[in-house]
Design brief:
Strand content of chain A: 25-35%
Radius of gyration of chain A: 24 Å
Distance between the termini of chain A: 42 Å
Helix content of chain B: 55-70%
Mean pLDDT of chain B: 85
Structural class of chain B: alpha/beta
Oligomer: heterodimer
CATH superfamily of the largest domain in chain A: P-loop containing nucleotide triphosphate hydrolases
Largest sheet of chain B: 5 strands, mixed
Low-confidence stretches of chain B: none
Order of helices and strands of chain A: EEEHEEHEHHHEHEHEEHEHEEHEHH
Strand content of chain B: 5-15%
Distance between the termini of chain B: 42 Å
Number of helices of chain A: 12
Largest interface: A-B, 27 and 20 residues
CATH class of the largest domain in chain A: Alpha Beta
Number of domains of chain A: 2
Shape of chain B: elongated
Shape of chain A: elongated
Number of strands of chain A: 14
């Protein structure tokens, strides 16, 4: 893993609550940006007040709504949000597939509007919907793509075999992709995006629709690619994926940036703190009231054969709770302390569950319209 | 059972209604067929350009020449405009050259001696369909009308050419069109639907490269099919290709025509992302371009408005060039204008394709 700093909100990220998401610490200085200020600094992508509006005769959809943030060199950056939150649209803007309605963005010293060609040379993209040619073999797919991205012919063959080995597909190199399973296709597509050693790799929902085993393999691959100093930006609506892979996470919902920080810092946002569950046989109604009076405890609820307590810095409260149980003479049958999950954070920030896909603005629709 | 059937009916019908483009096209097509096919095939052939010339000596016009020319100028079937546009030539050689270059459809040579035992000689461009017969009938009719009983000697300058040979040449162009429009275009749109184009767009490959690559592959495919139909057509129709020079010239025309039609297809297909819409549009283009190409029926029989389409129709130039080579054995000098027109058309189509191909999604 690359350097991950846990010490408080940093300057380039958006600290804490959603309200702060509109201002950029450095962008406001001076005239409208003449050239992208990113050189060898720590940021590799800077997004500045990007907005994207899709409109057709019937309606207007704001897919990305005034989003501003930076991505640091070498990190795995997660864009997390429900379906239709605007993650893919943002990725498409950064990969020059769509042009923004307003705002600017820079990808490693290049402005996405002025130098799209140069950006395409330094990025690798693995879109949500497969762009593999299923009628061609794995080898042919890699070779074709390698030529499109200007991989030198003298090293191309070696590189292809390297990638096939990386994706565990060496023995299927000469089989058509149509005979591959979903996981194999995904792995092939991810290594294909990496064929020219891009500085930045964009992965749009890399594990959607894969079985647990394939997901784990894809994750391993992503970590391996990140170890080669590639900055990785991935979108996902899976909590576990983001939690496992990402150094920093941006929560996106309804086109807006809700919050951006490291996972640990995000979890500190929840004021109720860690969740402690204590199993016991007896009735704990009275005990719950007593526990609530402890200074760090934010709530205590007696449920069937179980007491659920939330407390800041949960593990420090445990001795006191145990002492109270002992005083009452109630036997503890089990207990667990867990920090709030990302899902809890998301629900806390938006009041909605992540998998709740009901807010899908018809982005596929807008994309599929008359070109 | 009924419930399921109705559900499927409703779903299909909803999709049908939701695509007005296809609805309009399916309704417009039969009407277009009526108008274009009807006019292209059924028109009366009039104003056929022919030349008249007086054998020399004498250097003064004979009465037969004067009367015959006047009659030919006014000859018409009842109710129709006049049949011929007559040009008077001063020498037989010059008239014949004009005939060989395809500027006129026939030459009437009046004899120097007025006596009835000297025949009127008629040279016709037999590579065309319908016009030779009409010219022949018109000339004999005119002579009879002025009371001349001179015999008419008919000379078909390209020998007897049957309709299948006339049409066979058009089929080569049809093969090129079908391969690109139906095969190539649908494949291109399918690639786009499968997201393969989205894959191109995130790589540094240039828009020009994308278009040129697609045109190149399409051209090779179209050339192959045109070539195969050319060879098969020669065998089936029994046309005699006069030599290697003609053979290679025909292949050259096939290649250039393939570039033109493929470029047109790529520039159209890169605007569509729906196979149905594309197929409708293609059927429309196929109708217009093929009907006015002269492959079926001489364009001289078409109404003027339809004949204007032939001016911008690459298929017309292709058919004309191939017919000149294969049926008439004419060389580069005659087909040069066709080749230039095809090249201009191809360049325009390539430019259109490159400028309209979108480098982004949306």
């Amino acid at each position: 893993m690359t350097g991950q700093d846990n010490n408080g909100p940093d300057t380039s990220g958006i600290p804490g609550s959603g309200e702060g998401a509109g201002t950029h610490p450095r962008a406001s200085s001076g005239s409208p940006q003449e050239i992208c200020p990113l050189t060898a600094g720590e940021s590799i992508i800077r997004i500045d007040h990007i907005t994207k509006v899709f409109s057709d005769r019937n309606r207007t959809v704001i897919a990305v709504d005034d989003v501003t943030f930076d991505v640091k060199r070498g990190e795995i950056f997660g864009l997390l949000g429900p379906n239709g939150a605007g993650k893919s649209t943002l990725i498409r803007i950064l990969t020059t597939l769509l042009s923004q309605t307003s705002g600017t963005a820079c990808v490693n010293t290049f402005d996405i509007k002025k130098d799209p060609e140069k950006i395409r040379g330094i990025i690798g993209v693995c879109p949500q919907n497969s762009t593999l040619d299923v009628e061609l073999t794995a080898y042919d797919n890699l070779e074709f793509y390698g030529k499109l991205v200007n991989v030198d012919d003298s090293i191309l063959t070696r590189r292809i075999h390297e990638l096939l080995a990386m994706a565990d597909l060496s023995d299927r190199a000469l089989m058509p992709v149509s005979s591959f399973s979903g996981g194999m296709r995904r792995k092939l597509e991810i290594v294909r995006a990496f064929i020219h050693h891009p500085l930045i790799l964009f992965l749009d929902e890399p594990t959607i629709g894969l079985d647990p085993e394939s997901r784990r393999e894809v994750w391993q691959q992503i970590v391996r690619l990140n170890d080669e100093n590639t900055t990785i930006i991935l979108t996902t609506h899976y909590m576990d994926e983001a939690e496992k892979l990402c150094n920093r996470i941006a929560f996106v919902d309804k086109g807006r940036l809700i919050s951006l920080d490291t996972i640990d810092n995000l979890k500190k946002l929840i004021p109720t703190g860690d969740i402690i569950e204590i199993g016991c046989e007896a009735d704990t109604g009275a005990l719950a009231t007593t526990i609530t009076t402890l200074p760090q405890v934010t709530s205590a609820q007696a449920r069937k054969q179980k007491l659920v307590v939330t407390a800041r810095d949960g593990s420090r409260v445990i001795p006191e709770i145990f002492a109270l149980f002992a005083k009452q003479g109630i036997a503890i049958t089990s207990f667990s302390v867990r920090p709030p999950s990302l899902e809890d954070v998301f629900i806390y920030l938006t009041g909605r569950k992540l998998d709740d896909g009901s807010t899908e603005p018809a982005m596929r629709n807008a994309r599929g319209g008359r070109r | 059972m009924i419930r399921g059937a109705i559900a499927i009916f409703r779903r299909d019908f909803k999709k049908f209604i939701s695509n007005p483009f296809v609805i309009v096209f399916t309704l417009v097509m039969p009407i277009m067929y009526l108008v274009i096919f009807g006019n292209a095939m059924g028109g009366t052939i009039t104003h056929i350009p022919i030349g008249v010339v007086q054998e020399t000596p004498p250097y003064n016009d004979t009465p037969l020449f004067t009367a015959g020319t006047a009659m030919l100028r006014h000859y018409a079937q009842p109710g129709d405009p006049r049949l011929f546009d007559v040009t008077v030539y001063t020498s037989e050689d010059r008239a014949k050259r004009a005939l060989e270059d395809g500027k006129i459809a026939g030459v009437v040579v009046f004899p120097a001696e007025v006596s009835s035992d000297h025949a009127v000689r008629l040279y016709v461009d037999s590579s065309d369909y319908m016009t030779p017969t009409l010219v022949q009938a018109g000339v004999t009719g005119s002579l009879r009308a002025i009371g001349s009983d001179n015999a008419v000697l008919i000379n078909k300058i390209y020998g007897d050419i049957t309709y299948i040979q006339f049409f066979g040449v058009g089929v080569i162009v049809m093969a090129i069109f079908m391969t690109t429009m139906m095969g190539g275009g649908i494949a291109l749109i399918k690639d786009r639907e499968m997201g393969i184009h989205e894959g191109y767009l995130v790589t540094p490959v240039k828009r020009t490269s994308i278009i040129l690559g697609m045109i190149m592959s399409g051209t090779v495919r179209a050339t192959l099919s045109g070539f195969i139909i050319f060879v098969v057509g020669v065998l089936i129709t029994g046309v005699i290709v006069r030599g290697f020079a003609d053979f290679f010239l025909a292949v050259l025309v096939i290649i250039i025509a393939s570039v033109g039609v493929t470029s047109l297809m790529v520039s159209i297909a890169s605007r569509f992302n729906n196979q149905q819409e594309y197929a409708s549009t293609t059927a429309f283009f196929n109708l217009i371009l093929f009907m006015t190409s002269g492959a079926f029926y001489p364009t001289i029989g078409m109404p003027d408005w339809l004949r204007w389409i032939t001016v911008i129709n690459p298929e017309w130039y292709s058919v004309h060039a191939l017919r000149s080579i294969i049926l008439r054995g004419q060389g580069l000098s005659v087909i040069m204008p066709d080749l230039i027109a095809l090249l201009v058309f191809s360049s325009a189509a390539i430019m259109l394709g490159i400028t309209t191909y979108r480098r982004t999604l949306e």
